[in-house]
Amino acid sequence: TPHKNASLVSSGNMLSRALFSSGRVLAHAHTALKGSRMVPAISPVLRLSPRLYATTSAPATRKNLDDEYEHTTELKPTNQKTAIPCFKIMDQTGTVKPASLDPNLSKDEVTKMYKTMVQLNTMDVIMYDIQRQGRVSFYMTSFGEEATHIGSAAALLPEDMVWGQYREAGVLLYRGFTLDEVMSQCTANQYDTGKGRQMPVHYGSKRLHFQTISSPLSTQIPQAVGSAYTQKLAGSPNISVVYFGEGAASEGDFHAAMNFAATLEAPMIFFCRNNKWAISTPSVEQYRGDGIAGRGPAYGMDTFRVDGNDIWAVYQVTKEARRIAKENNRPVLIEAMTYRVSHHSTSDDSTRYRTIDEVNFWRDNHNPITRLRNYMIKKGWWKEEMDQPLIQESRLAVREALARAEKALKPDIAHIFTDVFDTVPQHLQEQKAELEAHLKLYPEEYPMDHHAKSLSGH
After folding, report:
1. What share of the chain is helix, strand, coil (3-state, %, to 5)?
2. Which of 74, 247, 412, 440 is the most exposed place for a label (fewest CB within 10 A)?
3. 165-202 burial by CB neighbour count: b if 16+ within 10 A, else e?
């Protein structure tokens, strides 16, 4: 019996299958309860039928696509050579052209976006350093990609379901994830909502509609399709958004998810952060053809390519993509062109496969934080001398949250056996008893006083 909170426990493809299965069950329930024209009410025996996935507005029979082709007797292959253009409206000086595309958000909203970007950047600097000191086991920074986080997060509704990869901490911060929550997760203390079961930076928040991040690459992509399909069947006002890198788009899960989403007409956004490096593999070795965006039309999706370092371009594209997805009940693909200034993770040394000059060029000439600051200065909302106090304030907030997290106890060891089954089965009860006996037998080897509660009762 799955636990009621199991949706936030990352479980790879098992959750993906569960979501699609739940979508099928909901389809039957929706039909039986509301008399939908989608499918007739049937028995609980699940049958895979094309009609099961038809929308209420679709005709009973579809026209053969062969009838819509333009036939030819010319024997030659077709090669699509026209690239999808990249949407950009703000340059590095903070000038928006044309001015009509400026979203004209309020001073308070723009200031929040800027401060969140600075907070993310400051947090990444400190957390990278403390990992090198051995105080956390792992960390991933987002240097250079801050606009993809904040620009997209600001364009979504707070209740839209987010499926992150592992470099979307800014989306969480923008939604209200606190520094205490970040530090508790990275240090795996008793206040970590994941109860110490995940690697650092594998955040999740039921409160903020952000599904727990999973280490295996791209497993979240088909899961997000199941989430969006369920939202559609339930008549939810929200959509699902899945983030991933261009490297993850080389996985089979990406293609399966794209086809599922297109054929099920799921209201969702596929948001690809093309930061040009999949660990040490450059994007030029990841694909041929027109990048990731070029795949969208092939799957029948509306597609955008956007300058990922232009926060207003990202905001406008995401906002429009969300409108299309919700109003038309169909998926939209976004490819955000950005650059990973940082190493892939603390386990990587990018100087072994790219030059410092390349990194510095992107950091100095395409910095998304600088671009937004220049915009605010032009508006008269910010001054350069305000930056240093903000950075100092951000550093202090991160360090204080980190200190609190490191002083906290570790999670209860008993949580090894919780949150998978609603009722703990016999074999896990036996394993729990065996662990408790082992800990009591070797108390010097396994001190329990630094845990919130131990199996031995300390």
Report:
1. 45, 10, 45
2. 74
3. bbbbbbbbbbbebebbbbbbbbbbbbbbbbbbbbbbbb
The 10s digit of each residue's pLDDT in 42-96 is 323 332 333 333 333 444 455 555 567 788 889 988 887 789 999 999 999 999 9
Question: How big is the chain by its Cα radius of gyration, in Å?
Answer: 24
Which helix (H) or strand (E) segment holds residue 232: the answer is helix 220-234
The pLDDT value recorded for residue 62 is 52
Q: Strands 281-282, 161-163: parallel, antiparallel or unpaired by DSSP?
A: unpaired
Mean pLDDT of the chain: 87
Per DSSP, what are the bridge partners of residue 90? 96
Neighbours of 352 (CB within 10 A): 8
Which of 7-43 are b and which e, b meaning 16 or more Cβ less than 10 Å from the residue's Cβ?
A: bbbbbeeebbebbbebbbeebbebbeeeeeebbeeee
State yes or no: pLDDT of 174 exceeds 60: yes
CA dist 375 and 389 (Å) reads 19
3 state SS for 316-382 = HHHHHHHHHHHHHCCCEEEEEECCCCCCCCCCCCHHHCCCHHHHHHHHHHCCHHHHHHHHHHHHCCC
End-to-end CA distance of the chain: 31
Q: Which tens digit of pLDDT belongs to each residue from 397-431?
A: 999 999 999 999 999 999 999 999 999 999 999 99
Q: What is the DSSP letter of 410?
A: B
| Strands (DSSP E) found in 15-160 | 86-87
Euclidean distance between CA atoms 343 and 347, whole angstroms: 8
